[in-house]
Structure formats: C-alpha cells, structure tokens
C-alpha cells in the first residue's frame, strides 16, 4: 500500500516536472515570440513572414547563397560592396523600410537604420544603460574569446568593469604609450626597407595587412605587459587562432550551435582557450611577483589594472563573481580582441584608399612636414601637434567611414523601451549595420561611396545630415573605451609610414571585403611600396 502511494507520488512529480518543462519551452519558443511579433505588428512594423520553428533563417540562407553565386571574386573599389556581407538585411531594408522585424528561431530582431531613432537610442543608452545591453545569445559563442570581460558584460557587471578600466584609456594615460607605438612601428618599417632594398627597381609588392596586425599586436603586448611583451606576442598568436576558429561558426543567426559537443572545431576552441588562459595567467603571476618585489621600473596597463582591481575588491557588485586572476585574464583577452586587429585592419584599409588617391598621400605628407619638420620625434613629444594634423584626421575619419572594422552592432532590450513612436518589447534584439549607415546617400550625399576626406573638414557634426548615424566605435554609453588609444595609434603609425614610404595599388590586388568578426580584406591588402628619397627611419629618435 505504502509502496503504491510512493510510486504514485513519484509519477505525479515526474508528470508535474515534465509539464513545467513543456510549458516553459512552449512559452520561450511560441508564446513569447508571438507576443513580441504581435506588439511590433500593431505598431505598423513589418518584415518577412517567418515560419515555425526556424523563423526567417531559410530565407536568409537563400538570399545569401544567391548573392554568393552572382558575385564575382573581386570587384572595383568604387562599387557598393556593402550588399555582399549580409544581403538579406539590405534586401529587406528596400522592401520594408528603415525599421523592420525578422526572426531567427525563437529570437526576435528589429533592424534599425532610421537616423532619428538612432539619435534617440543613443540618448536613451546614455541615460539608462541597463535597459540596453549586449545581445546575450551573441555573447555565449564568444565566451572562449572574451570570457566575462567588458565586451560581453551587462548591467552592474559591465558598469563596474567600465569604471575600473576606462580611466586607463584617458588621453592623459594613453599619451604615455606613444613611445611604445613609435618603437614598434620603426621596427616594422625597417623590415619593409630591407625588402625594398632586396627587390628590383626599388619597389616591392607586399601584402601589408599581416605586417600591420603583427605591429598592432606588438604595440598592445608592450602596452599591456611591458617587459613581458614577447610572451604577450605568443598569447596574441593563440588568440588569433581562437578568433579564426570562432569565426567559422554562424553567431548572427542566433541558432543553438551545439557548443558543448566534442566536434573537431569545438575541441580546437577548447584547446586554444585553455592555452591562452594558462599563458595569460602565467604573465599575471610574474607581474604580481615583480610588484611584490618592487622590480617593475615603469607601470604597464596590466600592473595598473591589477592594482585597481585589488583596491576595489570590496566594492564589487554582489552578482559579479569577482576573482582577480579570472578578471585579469578576461581583461587581457578583451583588449587583444577589441584592440589589435581592429586598428590594424583600419590602417590597412586607409593605406589602400591612399594608394588609390596619391594626391591625398601628398597632402598628408606635406602637413606632417609642416607640423613637425624633418624630425617626427618633435611631433610625438608634443601632443598638441596631433591636433594640427587636420588632413590626417580627415583621412582617418573618412577611411573608417568607408571601411570601418566594426560591421554590426547589436543591443538587447532588457525592458520595454520607448523609441520614438514605437515601444520596443523586452527581449527584442536590435541590429545596426554600420556599412549601410555610413554609405547612405540620403545622409552623406550622392558621393557617399567616394573617398572624400574633405567632407570632415569641419568635424563629424558637419560631415552629414545625421552625425548620430556615424558609428565606427559604437554609440551611447557602450562607446568603445579604447577609441582614444586607437585614434592615437593610427595617427602615430600612419604619420611614420607615410613619411617614409609611398603606396600604389598592386596589379594583383583583388578587392573583396569580408566579415570575419571584423571587416577584413579576403585576399589581403596588396600594395606596391616605395621608399621615399631622403627619408631616414628613426631619424632624430
């Protein structure tokens, strides 16, 4: 009798558990998406018709496949290439307007390209940043690369990390890194000079983007690890491999990608993550020992952050599982991912554009000569001189408008948000496609696809109708904290390179921008490089 009662109770619990799971699954995959779509539909927001259970994924894949088949490998630089990255976003923009909805599985997305809404969203992000954050589903696949660092963090976790890290990238701090940038750049340029000497005719055909990636990694390693930068370069190599492995996965669709299964790709990701974490932790331990012994002559970024993290340990948010070692490991990975390749890729695209426009090369060189004379060291010792490099600043701004490394920006609504005349329901993922915003003729004019740095002659606010639609470093409270350092690095690197070399496009160059977590040249930036007469590397340094 008692055994029958126990069995009956047990089966009742099983039935209740199964029903609870089914109700939850039904809510997440059917009721919640249906409610969100209904709310958006009632507000006049339209989009492609989804099908259960995959939403619009099959249509996205069909459009992408059609674009691949109809696009040749390599195209004129002057053509609009933006449609080749995510063609379904562009096609739906033409069909449904600047704001439309679509879905991937149970996830509901809102594409936004209306400049007025961007302005409102930016202000709302600044005023109440916790209601908008990084899309949670996009963060999970990148966990091996960025951990719980600031790139993927939200809420008080993100606010704490930003408060801790952001001051390290203020101009008063990053200007002390100019010497590091200069030293690394000169070393790279000497290898270029040797290649030119060995070549016939004083001109060499080079793929420059790999050298610039190594340069940027060396700069980050020296700035972050100081005297341990050689170990930092080894870590960079592993992180690059990890980034490449992760780029094979489709994280934009929002599909469950079986990250826990021991597939060949996943095993490679797990191995690389373990090696990266182990190497970074070793550098951290070495740094801690040197701090304890007082043997570090000059504080690097790693040491400064270590000291700040330890000092603020008692102020950590309760929900933030803070461990200093784990935090520093994730910080280093975030700095590498966000800082090394983005700056290098930006420099590569800018040099490609200057190779196509030799008149702007000459303008920038003339300006550098006028500002600093024969010795560039004068420029680097005087931060005020950087403000006088207006031509170079305009070139950089126009370069990252046309070929900004950051392609897509996404936000998740963690609460219902009023946006203009719309109410964006909690759980919606908002998407912003930077290349389309940066090449919109309604905002930039009919010459939007042309390289015209003079459009920035009076600053960003006067360059277009809606400056809020210029988002190379993101927008709102989540604006890239490394922006100041990235622009400083670009100015130093380009000033040195353009003062010593001239560039033209190689006959072998094939223009094919592709998305691999950042906008990269599929076949490399292949340029003809010539050493300028009378220039001397390291002169006066």
From TrEMBL:
Membrane topology: Single-pass membrane protein
Protein family per UniProt: Belongs to the cytochrome P450 family.
Upper taxonomic lineage: Eukaryota, Viridiplantae, Streptophyta, Embryophyta, Tracheophyta
Organism: Quercus rubra
Full protein name: Cytochrome P450
Keyword Metal-binding: yes
Keyword line: Heme, Iron, Membrane, Metal-binding, Monooxygenase, Oxidoreductase, Transmembrane, Transmembrane helix
Predominant location: membrane
Record's subcellular location: Membrane
GO CC term, one of those recorded: membrane
Cofactor: heme
